[in-house]
Amino acid sequence: MTSFLRVIDLETTGNSFTDGGVVEIGWQDVEQGADGQWALRGGPGAMLIDPGNPISPATSAIHHLIDEDVAGAPRWLDAAPAILRAEPGPSPLALVAHRAAFEQRWCASALSGRLPWICTYKCALRVWPEAPGHSNQGLRYWRRPAGLDRETGLPAHRAGPDAYVTAHHLRDMLAVADVPTLLEWSAAPALLARVPYGKLRGRRFADLSDEMLAGLLEAARGDGDLGFTVRHEQRRRESSAPPTPAPASQGALNLP
User: Which InterPro entries does this one have (predicted)?
Assistant: First the structure.
């Protein structure tokens, strides 16, 4: 039986079920061959979804989908289970998305069959910390993944093309890290490459002084990713610090 991962991308109106819905789902499978190497299987798939409420102009400006495009399309709860579980047939080892926390707002466990998730954003921070940015499209043009057909990956911000682009990042991550490792990184907070905001914005954590790190940790209350990254850097410095020399032994006093 072939092992595969299913990359998912959603286009939505709003940020959650409370203020919007899914208007399109895209997917792209990445499978492991007999030689252990991972490769894209076929091309991307996509399906329009009726969100059940009007598509806002703000979100149409991103993905260019309007109410007329989704008229008569299936509803999310009807369409999602078969796509997420790859029915009919075996389910994927895991679902994958870039910034997976967003997709997980709609892809509830009950719909996906409780499949685990890989977040290619969090994994990219680990595999390519030197990248100038870690957005899906930013990585696309910085990395120029082998085999990525430009036309298939366009237009950006449509579910099928975006899933296709993400799948190339995933394939290349799997060349340096196995699935359990990607799942572990995805379950943890993001290990940021640079300070995300404030006076130190854009600075690499390794370049900051111990005092700067302590100040960031104090300011990071409520920001799990920032706190996690600062503590990670502090532990790295502690583990790489040279050992403290033992005090010189003092010989016995020669009393008269």
Answer: Ribonucl_H, RNaseH-like_sf, RNaseH_sf
pTM for the structure as a whole: 0.91
23 and 142, same domain (yes or no): yes
Q: Is residue 148 part of a domain?
A: yes
How many other CB atoms are found less than 10 A from the CB of residue 183? 18
122 and 26 share one domain: yes
User: What's the rounded Cα separation, in Å, for the pair 137 and 160?
Assistant: 14
193 plus 147 within the same structural domain: no
Same structural domain, 161 and 120 = yes
pLDDT digits (tens, 9 = 90+) for 85-121: 999 999 999 999 999 999 999 999 999 999 999 999 9
Q: Are residues 13 and 74 located together in one domain of the fold? A: yes
The per-residue pLDDT for range 181-210, each reduced to its tens digit, is 999 999 999 999 999 999 999 999 999 999
Q: For the segment 9-44, what is each residue's pLDDT rounded down to a tens digit?
A: 999 997 666 667 999 999 999 999 999 999 999 999
Instruction: Determine which helix (DSSP H) or strand (DSSP E) holds 8, and give its type and residue range.
Output: strand 4-13
Report which residue type is found at 18.
T
Residue ranges of the alpha helices (H) in 105-178? 109-112, 120-127, 136-143, 159-173
End-to-end Cα spacing for the chain: 87
Cite the DSSP H helix spans in the chain.
57-63, 67-70, 76-84, 100-104, 109-112, 120-127, 136-143, 159-173, 179-187, 210-219, 224-240
Beta strand pairing status for 117-119 and 95-97?
A: parallel
CATH number of residue 171's parent domain = 3.30.420.10
CA distance 51 to 74: 9
Pair 86, 171 in one domain: yes
